[in-house]
Design brief:
By secondary structure, the chain is an all-alpha fold. 70% of the residues lie in helices and 1% in strands. The protein is built from twelve helices and two strands. This is DUF2785 domain-containing protein.
Length: 289
């Protein structure tokens, strides 16, 4: 008799869940117990199997949530689970590790639930408010900024966290007094030490655009733009022109340049536009003249 280890049982469970989800997506199998399926998907939400995690679990959650296939109780349960410390903040602080997949994909599901709540208002006010606050805090605290991880697929924590931040900002219960915290979270992402190459800066800009559309004061935005430059200068003063500084400068400059053109298309007033132009030109002159 062969005694299976934990790893073998995990692999079998993942394989069975894959087949169940493929059948569910293709045929909408009505014989499946949805509560059991939800439990299984939540348990495997941070699987290192990219097909299971991204193509099957996340997409199935999206289908169930957005097509109103779940009860209010089921939606609340998914939200409360994903907001737990062992989901959205699981092993938070690690710079590398498989825990990022649990955090990152929990953030995506929370974003879906907040987006749906904008239309249906099914969540209790306290739960929605908690999701908004935790979404802001998650992006600030995340340290693992890898995009694509070889053999394991997309971690994309910054991009997914930006999606959650956008959903939080667009929610009716979002209050503009949280704007400063949102800006701090976006700023923190630009100084996490890695150059973004997987569309993270664009996703952060979408969240910033949502904040502007909610009524962010242009003077506050202009001061924040200056603060980004000042923070970058502090890194150079402290470290010199190190590799870490160069990477952070690349992130900040790419972000500011993209912001300039995005704000131009939004017909934002000249105040933040002039500040963006001034800062980009100043840093270019400083580094290359």
């Amino acid at each position: 008799m062969v005694i299976k280890g934990k790893k073998e049982y995990e692999m079998e469970a993942q394989s069975e869940l894959k087949e169940t989800l493929k059948s569910f997506q293709a045929e909408g199998n009505k014989k499946i117990n949805v509560n059991t399926l939800i439990e299984q998907m939540l348990y495997q939400i941070g699987s290192t199997d990219a097909e299971l995690r991204d193509n099957l679990i996340y997409r199935t959650f999206g289908k169930l949530i957005m097509k109103e296939a779940l009860t209010i109780q089921q939606l609340e349960y998914i939200m409360s689970t994903c907001l737990r410390e062992d989901y959205l903040f699981y092993r938070i602080g690690e710079k590398e590790g498989d825990g990022v997949f649990t955090r990152s994909f929990s953030s995506l599901v929370i974003a879906l639930l907040l987006e749906k709540d904008r239309e249906t208002h099914y969540l209790p006010r306290q739960v929605a408010n908690d999701a908004i606050l935790q979404g802001i805090h998650y992006l600030y605290q995340e340290k693992d900024v890898r995009g694509y991880v070889e053999h394991k697929g997309w971690a994309h924590s910054v991009a997914h966290g930006a999606d959650l931040l956008e959903a939080a900002i667009r929610h009716p219960l979002f209050e503009l007094e949280l704007a400063e915290s949102c800006l701090e979270s976006v700023e923190a992402c630009l100084f996490k030490g890695q150059v973004y190459i997987d569309d993270e800066d664009e996703r952060l800009l979408i969240a910033l655009e949502a904040l502007i559309e909610r009524g962010l004061d242009e003077k506050v935005l202009t001061r924040w733009i200056s603060k980004l430059s000042n923070s970058l200068q502090q890194v150079e003063d402290r470290e010199g022109v190190t590799l870490a500084f160069v990477r952070q400068k690349t992130n900040v400059m790419n972000f500011l340049k993209s912001m300039y053109f995005r704000l131009m298309s939004k017909h934002v007033s000249s105040l933040p536009m002039e500040k963006l132009k001034e800062i980009v030109e100043r840093w270019h002159t400083k580094m290359y003249s």
